[in-house]
Structure formats: structure tokens, C-alpha cells
Amino acid sequence: MISFHRILAYTVRHLYLYKRSMPRLMEVFYWPVLDLLVWGFVTVYLSRQSGEVPQFVTFFLGALILWDILFRSQQGISVSFLEDVWSRNLLNIFVSPMSATEYVLSLLFLYLLETRIAPVYEFLGQRGFNDPGTLIAAVVVAPFVEEFAKALGVLRVRRFMDEPEDGLVYGGTAGLGFAATENLFYGLYFLAATDSLETSLLLIGIRSVSSAFLHASATASTGYGLAKSRLWGQSAIPWYLLAVLLHASFNLMASFGEQLSGTYGDSAALIGLVAAIAFGLLAFALVRKKIRDKDVGWHPS
């Protein structure tokens, strides 16, 4: 008889692996977001064509999408099985009460959990967001990529971390440097697009009191995790995920005006701006307090 408890237990076993495996975490977001962006842009392009799209083109695109869905589902199951083979975990499975049917069902259930990001796209589109694809790129893709890039900079000075608060300081410094470069690029872009120096300087000023503090606070979290990893061998991934969460929350607030302007009007931009600035300042204040508390309580052994 099939036991739901055994299926759930083996699914949870796989979920625990995500805590220490960055490739697993990236795979959850990378392929769904990539598929959404690729097929979304293809659909937008076809919808803007003046003439009627030939039937064989839509048939071919439907076949490609169906093939991709089947390929991803097959890959999710086969790779999970191969990981059990590579880790020599099959013996443990064979001596357990779990049957082959329960094993396959647990892998299917795990794959369904991993692909739940696609319905998020549809949900956002139904709730009044003007461009769910851009929102997902800002809230999901950008935080993972940017925080990973900043973490690489912090890794270069990891050997100099002798105290936990060193990670907060080095991480915050890397975040401020990243924010300064990003603000400069944004300013130059708007200067070229609008030919208005005042608009460019205003944008740099607003981002300097919002995103700069956010970048410093988020990367400080990653730096703190790297310091704990060096000093006590603890995993830095949870602190990296905290940085991603902070970054994603800020981007969601900053995108509020652009995404919900059709629903809430001009007030949406003001609400999003105030919320983003308040969030960045609050995160920076908490990191600053953490540095002070750690500096007072630290006693080298």
C-alpha cells in the first residue's frame, strides 16, 4: 500500500539538500524564468505582427513548448535518481520500507514544487501588474545574480575576517561600491535618454538614499555568513538567501509604481518610493546596530 508519509518524508529529504547546494537553488528559478522570458517575448513579437500568423508556426511553437515541458519533467526525475546513484544513497532506499512507486511519486512531487514559479507569472498578470515578466526579472533574477556577484567580491577578502563583524563591514563596503557603480550607470543612461542633467542627478540622489543602503545591508548579510563560515565552518548559504530576500523585497517595493500605475494611478509611484527608501534605511540601521553589538560582545579565544 502506498504511504503518503514515506513520499512526504523523501521529498523533505530532498528539500533539506537545498540549504547547502547553490546549483539546486538556482535551478528552481533559472529554467522557469528563462522559459517565461523566451516564450513571452516570442508571443509578444507574434502578437504585434500585422498579418495573420501561419498555422504551421503556431503548431510548431506549441510542439516546442510541450517538448520543453516534457523534457524538464523527465530531467527533474532522472537527475534526482542519478544524484542518489552518485551519492551512493540507493542502498539506503532499498533497505527502507519505501517502494519503487513511492520513490517515483516523491520525485514527481518534488518536481511539482520546483515548477510552482510559473503560476506566479499568471497570478501577477491577473492582479493588475503591467509587466509580470519585468517584475519577475527584478524580484527573482536580479537579486540572485547581483548578490552572487557582490559575494564574489567579499570572498576575495575572506581571509582577513578575524571577527564576525568583519564580515558585516566588508560586505557593507562591497555593497556600497556596487551601489555607487550602479547609480552612476543609471545616471549616465538617463542623461543620454533624456538629455537632462537635472533628471540624472535627481535619480542618482534618490538611489543614493535608498538602493545604496539596501545594497550595503544585503551584502553585509552575505559577508556575515562568510565570516561565520571561515571562523566556525558554518554554511553561508542561509545568509546569502537572506540577502537575496532583502534585495527582492526592495525591488518589489521600487517596482510598485511602475507595475500598478494602471490600478492606483500616480500615487503608486510615491507609495513605492517611500516604502523602498524606508526599507533601505531600516535594513541599514539594523546592520549598523548588529555591528555595534558584535563589536562589544566579541572576545577572541
**Portion of residues within helices:** over 70%
Largest sheet: none
| Counted beta strands | 0
Count of alpha and pi helical runs: 14
The overall number of domains is 2
Strands, helices and their partners?
Elements: H1 4-17, H2 22-47, H3 55-86, H4 90-94, H5 100-114, H6 117-126, H7 132-155, H8 164-194, H9 197-208, H10 211-232, H11 237-254, H12 256-259, H13 261-264, H14 267-297
Helix pairs in contact: 1-5, 2-7, 3-5, 7-8, 7-10, 7-11, 8-9, 8-10, 8-14, 10-11, 10-14, 11-14
Question: What does this 3D model show about the protein?
Answer:
The chain has 301 residues and is an all-alpha fold. The protein has 2 domains: 4-115, no CATH class; 128-297, no CATH class. It has 14 helices and no strands. The chain has helices spanning 4-17, 22-47, 55-86, 90-94, 100-114, 117-126, 132-155, 164-194, 197-208, 211-232, 237-254, 256-259, 261-264, 267-297. Helix 7 runs antiparallel to helix 11 (237-254). The longest helix has 32 residues, at 55-86. The termini are far apart.
